Task: structure prediction
Amino acid sequence: MRQTWRWFGPQDRVSVDDMLQAGAEGVVTALHQVPTGAVWTPEDIAVRQSDIAAMKSGTPSGLAWEVVESLPVSEDIKKQRGDWRAHIASYRTSLRNLAAAGLETICYNFMPVLDWTRTDLAYRLQNGATCMRFDYVDFAAFDIHILGRAGAAEDFPPEISGEAARRFAVMDDARKSALSRNIVSGLPGAADRFTLEDVRRHLAEYDGISAERLRGNFVAFLEQIAPLAEELGLRMCCHPDDPPIGLLGLPRVMSTEADYSAMMRAVDLPANGITLCSGSLGARPDNDLSGMMERLGERVHFLHLRNVHRETQEILGSFYEAEHLGGHTDMVALVGAALAEEARRRRAGRKDASIPFRPDHGQDILDDLGRGAQPGYPAIGRLKGLAELRGVIAGLTHAGAA
Result:
């Protein structure tokens, strides 16, 4: 398993030197400065590769950009409105430019409006660490009483709507603002720019778009992208919905094993694959992570390994991001299934036998606290997670155990 590390570019509080000292073998990054729908140019790609190649001292780092996360799919493409055809053309050009630069693995998602959703970005645990949390009642309070989405109350179980009303009644203005800000953080690059009116406008544009229609738009996108990726030797890997439940009345189409199976059948090419994120999928108790790896592993091109502690066994419920070996996902079983898939690939002579993974997210611990890193992406918390995962891999592969 190839040990990689997500990096948000030169402005990231975690440096290339930090990644190298953490033991990363490769880097996962993107051109975050390029507007969604625009072409990723060879020049911009080369600059990011150069950024990764050197330490602060100018010494070669030995690291390289190995996985793209993410080449974003525009809202126009998801809705098939506006400039969606031009955006697909730009996407295809970007894929050609990435392939020419030696990139092969491309992570993306097809989540409408929100890339991810949390209600608390620094939930304090008993030991003093902080982590990201999704509180279902808080989210209901936002949706029903702050955003004021029409019909929102009926989208939640009655007991949740009732508790949300009680909780909202005692929220002061600071708490309401913080909750709104945390949720809006899931809008790509928009945490400091989007207003509630912007969110309402985005939601309105999805009126009349059902899950079936969004799935059809997704397949239409894949029909334009996957054959080109196959031709270029690229591996496209779709990230699941985060969390994998319906939110804000929006359709969700990548939340379960059945969703992934349908996506792969619709465009049945090896290049059309999966980012198996154990944290996103693990927020649902009915998702069997190690089983998914065993059954779908042939098309798993990238792994996000993180854990969540589910606060209920209901599909619609709260959770927080746990230590990598401490949540409800059996991480040892999942890693074991990934190693077994790698062994199958080696026997088949596949050149992509080693599956890249990264320690996804992490709790803020020690000097992470107060550092102000990207939410969910501290230095020491992820280093701890990578060390734990590395230990699991070593234990499972020792003396041929895998």
The first strand starts at residue 2 and ends at 6. Residues 40 and 94 are 5 Å apart (CA to CA).
